[in-house]
């Protein structure tokens, strides 16, 4: 997301950096380009206009900070305002008050509502909650079955809805089901339509007024750009939304919806969907995203994601090892497994500072087969060899190749990659995710 916007802003700021002192005219010139970049990113034109006016006010009004150059100062103001535009602080889900907590998911058909209900259940489960899924979308033929399947996949109980029943009755009856199952968060997956229509709104309002959900989350498709903004406004007027889940943001190169929804509808984006897999749901952090748009990377999200996929302790131990020479082939294998767990290498790497500028990240999917072969090679080593790769001489390499059903050249390649990765990780652990190092890591993982 935001590749184009990031590129354009980077160019604009580069031009600014050439000036020792900023005049009103070169600020205006830069801001004109920022505005064009925002419009090109499909940001609502009113939002873009207000945004620029605010920045100009602040930049020309000289909030002088001695530690920053004039260009850095403008970048900082743009960053602050981008963050503000998206709501400033991250807005967590409301899980306050007494259980059960009732979440109502609403949105148009195809926005990802059912999938997101499943993803949300998994996220809550990982946080130690006991979610309960309620398929109340009697509109789309396969929706009930779809949610039941998702529930089975993540081992979350699903209410056995009868498609012939009124959705309001389904929701009411599901409360007893959730209580029987000992669940504390109930997620209602309601019906959608292709467009906002009165009948749908009436149905949703009936559910809303009978059940008083504490979260009413609109699931909106980021790829629909300004339409998503209009949909959010319409749903908010009718139902009083408490938050938006913006889906498919990983596929939206422009990002206009993420930048405009809050400003136009006043509803905070609480979560973002970043892929089709069930763990591809993340809390929305305006400050981090603002940093990412400006190419500052998003180290915090990276750290958080890693922490989710494997226990924090392990991560910490690994980080320590990575910073020293203690990183062994055994650790390397574990690292590869973690990359598998975290999904694509692209998703992971794009969060590192500077990686936004790396082209061709999209082709950098970890190759499952390749990872398996690498694991097989490491498995064929003795513990002593795994502990100290330097003892692996020619005859040991032959034996390892035979044992793993690979070739000596493959073993050689792995050892070369390992030593490179080791060097690189040492550098990265010290927080210097530089382009060259990343490029090398990608080579090493291939
Ligand atoms: P519903 O009609 O709103 O219930 O939509 P579904 O949950 O069936 O989702 C429609 C399609 O969007 C499915 O193919 C999902 O896999 C896909 N989808 C949902 N969320 C995301 C996301 O964050 N990223 C991507 N790439 N696809 C998504």
TrEMBL record:
Classification via CDD domains: SRP_G
Protein name (database record): Signal recognition particle protein
Gene Ontology biological process: SRP-dependent cotranslational protein targeting to membrane
Record organism: Desulfoferula mesophila
SMART domains: AAA, SRP54, SRP54_N
GO cellular component: signal recognition particle
Quaternary structure and partners: Part of the signal recognition particle protein translocation system, which is composed of SRP and FtsY.
E.C. code: 3.6.5.4
Location within or outside the cell: Cytoplasm
Broad class of the protein's primary localization: cytoplasm
Family classification: Belongs to the GTP-binding SRP family. SRP54 subfamily.
Reactions catalysed: GTP + H2O = GDP + phosphate + H(+)
NCBIfam families, sorted: ffh
GO molecular function, one term: 7S RNA binding
Function: Involved in targeting and insertion of nascent membrane proteins into the cytoplasmic membrane. Binds to the hydrophobic signal sequence of the ribosome-nascent chain (RNC) as it emerges from the ribosomes. The SRP-RNC complex is then targeted to the cytoplasmic membrane where it interacts with the SRP receptor FtsY.
InterPro entries linked: AAA+_ATPase, P-loop_NTPase, Signal_recog_part_SRP54_M_sf, Signal_recog_particl_SRP54_hlx, Signal_recog_particle_SRP54_M, SRP, SRP54, SRP54_GTPase_dom
Chain positions recorded as GTP binding sites: 107-114, 189-193
Domain notes: Composed of three domains: the N-terminal N domain, which is responsible for interactions with the ribosome, the central G domain, which binds GTP, and the C-terminal M domain, which binds the RNA and the signal sequence of the RNC.
Record keywords: Cytoplasm, GTP-binding, Hydrolase, Nucleotide-binding, Ribonucleoprotein, RNA-binding, Signal recognition particle
UniProt domain SRP54-type proteins GTP-binding: residue ranges: 268-281
